[in-house]
Amino acid sequence: MNRVIGDSAPIRTGFFPSVSLFHGSTRLVWAVIGLGVILRLMQYLCDRSLWFDESLLALNIIDRSFTGLLHPLDYDQGAPIGFLMLEKLAIQVLGNSEYTLRLFPLLSGVGSVWLFYGVASRCLTPKAMPIALGLFAISAPLIYYSSEVKQYASDVAIVLALYLATIHMLSNRLTILRAVLFGSVGSLAIWFSHPAVFVLTGIGMSLTLLFLNRSERIKVGQLLIIALLWALSFTLCYFVSLRYLLTHKGLLDYWSDSFMPLPPKSLSDVKLLAFISFEIFKFPVGLALPGIAMLTFVIGGIAIYREHGNKFFLLTLPITVTLLASSLRKYPFGGRLLLFIVPYLLIFIAAGAERIREQTRRHCPLIGMMTLALLFLHPAFHAIYDLFNPSKPEDIKLVLNYLGEHKHDGDVLYLHHGAIPAFHYYAKRTGSVGLPHIAGAALTSNRRSYREDLEKLIGNTRVWLLTSHKSGDDQAFFLHELDGVGTRLEAFQGTGAAVYLYDLSEAAMPLVCRCR
Fold it and tell me: pTM above 0.70?
């Protein structure tokens, strides 16, 4: 038996939808889900090096005890306590490795494909659902973050699970016991996902509107029980963890350009709003043509609002709450921190694309076909390429292996500041440990600090320079300076990382330097 959620759309009572809901062959369902899983597994199995941010968080997880993870993290890092505890437990049980650290994000990413299918099946028509599921399966950001030592993939999984739990609750008679269970699920989610707070607030607001519209005051009272559990959990989490993040100067400065200027007070604010709105469809959604994405998003939003108003609010209010938090400078509205809203955006985009196809199929079917082609072309090409060439943004492990194999006794190592965290994570495993090293200055705008570092190296016969993480301009500066005072003996470059060996002894200096 089906029940109704405040409109004419029937909702299945089961927690997961039957594949018979899917338009066309059930083989297509499993093919798309399977593709999404394979793409995430291939990215995980490539065993890429930890990049800068991953290394910083990994060092916190490895070096601290379980109770130590309850305190503010070092290196300007922040992550949900539940996520940190699971990561710590994983390395305690399975050992310290990239595979272990990325296991929970992988499980979250793989599970998200199935969870998204469950949500999309209840929010879209059978013809629009394959569009949403296909875009979700091949989204490059969703694939990449499914194997990164960060909480962004688990944010997506938790948000989708909360939506399915909400729909399941609405599909059954709301009792005190179910209210407590639903409240407990949300309370737990707060400890595992920072944006879960915004999602739960949006869900609570949409349910309140729904029950008031139906004049179901008893359910509003039961909803208060749920809200009380969420509020108590958030309050405890705030005093244990969140209050430090909300006042962390380093994080606030880093994300300063991502706080939404609402309401806009100048033309520059309007331009910033427009820019951020379009850029979101590029990243983190992963669509190369933001104009097409924006158009289908708006059309889809209008269509869902007209047909199923309560679903519209259930999907949009969490985004609205996030925007409000951003305007108060409590949460950045941009980049990877918005990965959790990608499912909402893809649902609206799919609804819009299907509406365009439906409205134009009689007189000009080419329009609908081109809309779908423009949405899928770049993500599909990117997914095929990454299937055989998984992304490795900073392959510092390969470079450190080379260093470990070619180092000599008496060598000195200079670390560009972008290479420091990964070096400390990999040093023992790659054989580069034991080298006397100088940690480079982090003031990239102050060349004087770099020159002072390099002066400490003068006179050594074998000096290694290790660079990584956005080191392009710095690397060019270092090489120019070192080429001017010594002789380059070796060089080895990987993706996003490199190592150079110099002779900086007086005998190796150019004559002009020795005569100064």
Answer: yes
